[in-house]
Automatic annotation (TrEMBL):
InterPro entries: ABC_transptr_periplasmic_BD (IPR002491), Bact_iron-sidero_bind (IPR051313). PANTHER family: IRON III DICITRATE-BINDING PERIPLASMIC PROTEIN (PTHR30532), IRON(III) DICITRATE-BINDING PERIPLASMIC PROTEIN (PTHR30532:SF25). GO terms for biological process: iron coordination entity transport. Keywords: Signal, Transport. This is Iron-siderophore ABC transporter substrate-binding protein. Residues 72-332 form the Fe/B12 periplasmic-binding domain. PROSITE patterns: FE_B12_PBP. The lineage of its organism: Bacteria, Bacillati, Actinomycetota, Actinomycetes, Micrococcales. GO terms for cellular component: outer membrane-bounded periplasmic space. Belongs to the bacterial solute-binding protein 8 family.
């Protein structure tokens, strides 16, 4: 059901948590205020019609002119591979990071017709330290990176010396505006906007089917870190789009996530817990002494999820995957 929902693209209806100065909010025509921006960032983009080249795109690293439609694209951030595939483009090269596969399994499942092309994607190293020589050997028409979690200025300078490079903002908070900016660079802005419009409509429609006001929690374990995710996170944005309530401990908007200790596991409790473990060994969470004491666990409402989809790849197809799981679990 999950993969069908992704491929076809096609708890609570309570109001989302109010944003603070540290998380930019956007308002839509229905006056609802969302923590995750839904539009192109002010002053960014090209302003050019789709398919028109040359085009000069203003982005988070400066501005870049693309003389013609890019055919060979290298992505430095894993979620950008998701975004390109959603727009019908297979990247030529890609990085991996945080223990994630270069091309995660959910993308193979969502785009089966691209399997051979995905098998041919060239590994260009870590997203934090990509192999510049490997990228240069590809001779790309466009390189995509984001500014999150790295020395962005230095990396942008290195990549720009190889090929036209575009920098998005990065992190789960900005995945929608980053999709639109990336789409502008490849001349597919309207396609990206249409995708977002349909996704938002489907998320709202799902939320309206949820009975009661169950709060949903997002919990991840990777390496020596255990974290809960707030409103300004990727999975949190999908819950917000659906109008789902969040536990008090996860209504923060000034950080993507908060680290908790094993003794603080109660901060992950809610009516429903959607938990992911990097590497797939759920016992890293379920064997913790406080796990059986959580209300969601006692009610058999703790759901193991795909870590790649919920917590590692902030792309549109992953967002569809999260929405599908929420719908399957909570929808009527």
């Amino acid at each position: 059901m999950l993969i069908a929902a992704i491929a076809l693209s096609s708890c609570s209806t309570g109001a989302p948590a109010a944003p603070t100065d540290t998380a930019t909010a956007t308002a839509t025509a229905d006056t609802t205020v969302y923590t995750t921006p839904r539009t192109m960032p002010d002053g960014k983009g090209s302003g050019a019609e789709d398919g028109v080249f040359p085009r000069t795109v203003v982005h988070f690293g400066g501005e870049t002119t693309l003389e013609s439609e890019p055919k060979k694209i290298v992505v430095i951030s894993t979620g950008q591979a998701d975004a390109l595939l959603t727009l019908g483009i297979v990247p030529t090269g890609s990085t991996s990071g945080d223990g994630a596969d270069m091309i995660p399994a959910y993308l193979y499942e969502a785009f089966p017709d691209d399997e051979a092309a995905l098998d041919s994607v060239i590994d260009v190293g870590s997203r934090f330290e990509p192999d510049i020589e490997s990228i240069a050997n590809i001779a790309p028409d466009l390189i995509l990176m984001n500014n999150a979690g790295k020395d962005a200025a230095t990396l942008y300078a290195s990549l720009s010396a190889v090929a036209p490079t575009l920098a998005t903002q990065g992190t789960g908070l900005y995945w929608k505006q980053d999709l639109l900016l990336l789409a502008d660079a490849v001349g597919k802005t309207q396609q990206a906007q249409d995708w977002l419009d349909e996704y938002h409509a489907d998320a709202q429609a799902f939320g309206e089917t949820v009975t009661g006001e169950p709060a949903v929690s997002f919990l991840r374990k990777n390496a020596d870190r255990t974290r809960v995710f707030g409103v300004a996170s990727f999975s949190g944005s999908v819950a917000e789009d659906s109008g789902l309530a969040r536990p008090e401990t996860q209504q923060f908007v000034d950080d993507t996530s908060v680290d908790i200790s094993a003794e603080q596991l109660d901060q992950a409790d809610a009516d429903w817990i959607f938990y992911g473990v990097q590497g797939g060994d759920d016992s890293q969470l379920t064997a913790l002494p406080l796990w059986p004491t959580l209300v969601a666990v006692d009610d058999d409402q703790a759901v193991s999820v795909d870590d790649d989809i919920f917590y590692l790849n902030v792309g549109p197809t992953a967002a569809r995957g999260i929405l599908s799981v929420l719908d399957t679990t909570l929808g009527n």
